[in-house]
């Protein structure tokens, strides 16, 4: 038998075990995948798991793209969008932090992105699993996440290539895709409607990975390609079908992806410097007061503001994308900060979100000043 | 009654309904079809719901039909509405082995007063006002409306 089967069986078993353990406490599984990778990564032949983890990341970005149809971007609540602007102040602050740490403009911009973008995948899943969807703060958080993803996609388009050609290539490719979609979209959709689910799944997978490959071959970010594939599919009205078809495959791939990231993070801890830790911690802290103020702007009660600041702590998929990009462009410090942020913020954020009501009660009763609680956690 | 609608990106849509008494009900319709209901009492303490309920898509539709008075209509309500109450909408599923599968819409004999509004095919957009040459498949759901007697008669013949 192929050795990958053994690796897969082991990985899936361990992930299931971990997920089952935390499931008992109503705790989300994503951080556990990461920690599982960190703990057993050395003994697990993670490289045998490919291409599932890479596919998981591409499909994750594909489904982030699926959320961006023109229909979804319209009708976002204006107040929540304002909260998103406060949140975006993390970008200039992160940029400044990068410059202070001695990075050049590009490196500082990459660092700003890593500090700014929270993980839609982790947070949306947490909010659904914890049954907080109907709460007022969830709306603000979810809209903020959409804006973050949009900004980071722009950032990826800007920084994805080496120099200004990258932007032009990205824009050109995006334009060609949109043009083709406009031209053949309608016919394509009615053609797809006549096909079986299986065929659509295969075609969709080929389209997503093919687009990513094409983008990669032309020297721009493949994540951007997967995202574009998703948003294009969404604009053609294929969202529901693709979400249904790709959901389970994506979840499996994402679980393995987190495992692999955890496993590869072991090396990172060997070169842990104070600068790195300070940058990561500052990155974590800088968004808390911003999101607390943003929540106020969106009209949330003090308790809900605190919740929304907690909700936006986890960093995830885009950090890993930005980290990989930084590594490739010769900014190992940014890559390390990005991955360290994920490792710290996902478990910590999951805890903060899970126990937000308890923490809120504790913090808001003890300290009347609204800004302290967000920092002191 | 006031209804506010909000988009929850990545999750679905949220409807906040405030009724005459000031009580509030929040309904979240997930993309997955799940519905989440939360009930808040008027002037209730804090913003935690007094009640929460999860419904599957099917349960939500059933509940919706009951609330809309499709199955039973209270007599106390005015004239025009009770006329509406005489009409029903039914969802008829084409089960495996059903004689409907493989037939065209034009070949169906609908009793007078019963109308085929739409065919709902899993994984495909809704087919409203299906044309006579629409081919029915196993797994389709026929949306039929009309007088209660006609729809009941249709269900018996199928």
TrEMBL record, chain A:
GO cellular component: membrane
Keyword Zinc: no
Major place of residence: membrane
Family to which this protein belongs: Belongs to the monovalent cation:proton antiporter 2 (CPA2) transporter (TC 2.A.37) family.
Ranges where the Cation/H+ exchanger transmembrane domain occurs: 15-350
Phylogenetic lineage: Bacteria, Thermotogati, Deinococcota, Deinococci, Thermales
Subcellular location(s) of the protein: Membrane
GO MF annotations in UniProt: antiporter activity
GO biological process, one term: proton transmembrane transport
Bilayer topology term: Multi-pass membrane protein
Keywords on record: Membrane, Transmembrane, Transmembrane helix, Transport
Name this polypeptide is given: Sodium:proton antiporter
Membrane-crossing segments per the record: 52-69, 81-103, 109-128, 140-161, 167-187, 199-218, 275-294, 306-327, 333-355
